[in-house]
Amino acid sequence: MKRASFFIVCTALCWWLLLAVPAVEAAIAEYLKENITPALVIHQFNNQLPLGQPVDVYIDGSGNLYVIDSSSKAVLIFDNQYQPLSRLDAVSGLSSPKAVAADQKGYIYVSDAEGGILVFNSIGKIVRKIDLDHLTKGKVRSAQDLAIDQSGYLYLATGTEQGALVIDPQGRLKMAITPQEPAKEEGMGPTPVAVDRLTLDSDGRIYLLSAQMGRVYVYQSPDRFLFQFGQKGGSFGKLSQPVGIAVDRSKGLIYVIDYMRHTLSIYNLEGVFLQEYGGQGEKPGWFSHPNQICLDKQHRLIVADSFNHRLQVLAVQSP
Question: Which single residue of 166, 202, 246, 263 has CA 20 to 30 Å from 253?
């Protein structure tokens, strides 16, 4: 009799999971569709400098916004009210900036196509250089994306099969995180995956994004892989050329921006696809070849809307 009761309970639980969980996800998806709204559009750094092509965005611990504008080859720095503060450019020592991040001490790290990683102090002076070419013995010259954890460790997306590199606060290469895909043919080994973008969440998880694979690889720590999600493709729910990722644990959401589909894909923290937002267009809420995303201190999403020559700030209501 007890076994029969146990079987009935287990069967009921399985049916609940099969029916209720998808229904909850569908309800969240519908909610998100109606509750993402453009809050602000930024077209210029100041009255004399309109944005060219923003390709990277980063928010520091104080809420300051860093924007790499590929047209002017500069890092534009806004305060937490999105008012212009300062800029780093050729006069500061930059050649062709590609990615930017800042640590808790106020140092600004810029990946430069010609100079490895340049480290600036708060007044825009170079205080250190990290020679990636030397560290990696010629395998990596620059980084596609940067992130810094609370201990000052620097994470670099290389855009190559070297994956992501971890550099300690003293500038020493500690390890590489290299996602792998199963062998395509019998007798062959796993295939290393190129990592193009990355981010860290508030719990220290590491998210590695591959544009080639249309996939995100999630790690609890550099040596502990958790799971992967995302599917390559050009239709609803798939990723054609993902180029940016942000994670909001307070809302339980992961955002991925797609350069070719001009969309924002939204997942839960387990990597289950929920909804997508946007499409190609010029009006607020639409994108044209967006290039990167990040979250501000109000948990709003900032999109580098490259070919529309602007930044968009999107308010996302908690589901």
Answer: 166
Q: Please report, for the domain that includes residue 206, its CATH number.
A: 2.120.10.30
Q: Is 9 among the domain residues?
A: no
**Checking DSSP bridges between strand 263-268 and strand 253-258, what pairing results, if any?**
antiparallel
Quick check: is 79 in a domain? Answer: yes
- Residue 215, SS3 per DSSP: strand
Distance CA 67, CA 311 (A): 9
Number of domains in the chain: 1
Distance from the Cα of residue 282 to its chain's centroid: 23
257 touches 293 (CB < 8 A): yes
Taking a C-beta distance cutoff of 8 angstroms, is the pair 260, 291 a contact? no
C-alpha distances (whole Å) from 88 to each of 93, 279, 296 are 8, 32, 21
CB 105 within 8 A of CB 84: no
**Could you list the residue range(s) of the whole structural domain that residue 70 is in?**
37-180+190-316
Which residues touch 207 (CB under 8 Å, ≥6 apart)?
Answer: 198, 199, 200, 201, 216, 217, 218, 219, 245, 247, 254
Q: Residue 276 is encoded by which pair of tokens? A: 């997508």
| pLDDT, tens only, 3-61 | 556 566 556 555 655 565 466 566 666 657 678 999 999 999 988 789 999 999 999 99
7: alpha, beta or left? (left if phi > 0; alpha if psi -120 to 50): alpha
Domain assignment present for 270: yes
Strands 49-50, 36-42: parallel, antiparallel or unpaired by DSSP?
unpaired
14 within domain boundaries: no
- Distance (Å) of CA 195 to CA 155, 243, 244, 312: 11, 10, 11, 25
- CA nearest to 200, candidates 182, 181, 180, 177: 177
